[in-house]
Amino acid sequence: MKKLIRLALVGLVLVMALALDSCSTSKGVAYFQNADSVSLAASKVLYDAKIMPKDQLTITVNTTNPEAAAPFNLSVSATVGTSGQLNSGGGSSLQGYLVDNDGYINFPIVGKLHVAGLTKNECEDMIRSKIKPYMSTTENPIVTVRMASYRVTVLGEVKSPGVVQVPTEKMSVLEAIAQAGDLTIYGKRNNVMLIREAADGEKSIHRLNLNDANLINSPYYYLQQNDILYVQPNSVQAKNSAIGSSTTVWFSLVSIVTSVASLLVNVLRN
């Protein structure tokens, strides 16, 4: 009889311990918990995305003399339809430039240019310097470089994991997480994994703490092309996954033992 009562008490203690463990994780839910005590002076920098291999660029050259700029503005005025016939869209669009694996584009007249690792402004300055020798001294070409939208991936303990499109060339970690529906209550906020690929293909892993406001000062606060964010599960979710269906069995056993012990106590008393 005493053994049954002890088993019932052990089951009750187990349930209470799990409940307390779940409650303890709530302390790590809030973002930027130390925001009032952190200096954000280091974040006073305007972010510029850098060109990477496989980026699609649109480059336009303008001068006071349109004929001088024309050779540097390749246009596409027709496309091949599904039937194999050449279709005209009634207009023209600028030819895009795909950055190859070595970081080069093939620009009209000047030839191959290495653009990977440059910001848009740096790329514009470089192209301007390359084409000026082909123009008269009175020409002052204006070069505009635009990057097509790129993507980042958000996985793990978020409400809507998947690929996030970045149309504005600038997206922070928080914006990407917001696009993925925010972290679930089981997401580990102090150890978010960022997987990044450099221009030479080398991969690196960085750990981000969303509880710490110093994240805003981090060089990894803004994401770049093909970044992967992985939100790890916290201890509660990990335990639930490890235990799996056996959790139900154990709670059922505890419930049965408790019920039997209660029934025996009532029978013996009567």
Shape: elongated
Point out poorly predicted stretches: none
Instruction: Tell me how many strands there are.
Output: 12
Helix content: 25-40%
* First-to-last CA distance: 15 Å
Order of secondary-structure elements: HEHEEEEEHEEEHEEEHH
Commentary on this structure:
The chain has 270 residues and is α+β, with helices and mostly antiparallel strands. 29% of the residues lie in helices and 25% in strands. The protein contains 6 helices and 12 strands. It has helices at 2-24, 66-69, 120-131, 173-179, 235-243, 246-269, and strands at 56-62, 75-80, 86-94, 96-98, 104-107, 111-114, 142-147, 150-156, 162-166, 192-197, 203-208, 228-231. Strands 9-8-12-10-11 form a 5-stranded mixed β-sheet, covered by helices on one side. Strands 4-1-7 form a 3-stranded antiparallel β-sheet, with helices on one face. A hairpin with a 3-residue loop joins strand 5 and strand 6. Helix 1 packs across helix 6 (246-269). The mean pLDDT is 81.
Summarize the model shown.
The chain has helices at residues 2-24, 66-69, 120-131, 173-179, 235-243, 246-269; strands at 56-62, 75-80, 86-94, 96-98, 104-107, 111-114, 142-147, 150-156, 162-166, 192-197, 203-208, 228-231.
